[in-house]
Specification:
Largest sheet: none
Distance between the termini: 133 Å
Number of strands: 0
Structural class: mainly alpha
Shape: flat
Strand content: under 5%
Length: 181
């Protein structure tokens, strides 16, 4: 079986030789496979790429929302309003890294109120106003609970005293004690 493999290899090698001779000599631009890979000396010249050569591909864990000051918004709106040529607003937006929706939103805010509309607004759930009586109610409820516990203790002590007097057969009426004396 190994003899058959050797014969097949020799036939393949002969075909490769025939193809090479049929193609003729190589031109200057053509390279053989080892030449394409490059000599091993070039591998020694390889150097790692510095971090400053390329941007960091990592995405931050949480994206940062951009916040613009009222002065910045005002300045951009003035520039946009002053531009009359076609394409200057687009150039302004590209230069500043903004979208056209920013301009429309800021213009609406400016129409509502010059300073209030342009100031950045706090995002998220709005806080509810605190009821001034809620703290008083809370303190009264705490006091009520404390007094309830105190009352339960007193009732337990009184019940224990009743049972103890029954066991010792001591009368609880003070009138009977006064008559005996």
């Amino acid at each position: 079986m190994t003899a058959e493999i050797k014969e097949k290899r020799s036939v393949v090698d002969e075909r490769d030789d025939d193809l090479r001779t049929a193609q003729g000599p190589r031109s200057e631009g053509e390279r053989s496979e080892p030449e394409r890979r490059g000599p091993s000396e070039k591998a020694a010249e390889w150097r790692p790429v510095k971090k400053t050569d390329r941007p960091d591909p990592e995405v931050p864990a949480k994206a940062q929302r951009r916040k613009y000051s009222a002065e910045y918004k005002q300045r951009i709106l003035e520039e946009a309003d002053a531009s009359k040529d076609t394409g200057t607003i687009g150039a302004l937006l590209r230069r500043e890294g903004l979208y056209s929706s920013h301009l429309t939103t800021w213009r609406r805010q400016r129409e509502k109120g010059q300073l209030n509309g342009l100031a950045p607004k706090k995002r998220g759930r709005k806080s509810t106003p605190i009821n001034p009586l809620s703290q008083k109610i809370r303190s009264l409820e705490n006091e009520n609970r404390r007094l309830q516990k105190q009352l339960e203790k007193a009732e337990t002590i009184i019940e224990f005293q009743k049972k103890l007097s029954e066991m010792l057969e001591i009368s609880m009426n003070s009138e009977q004690d006064d008559e005996k004396c």
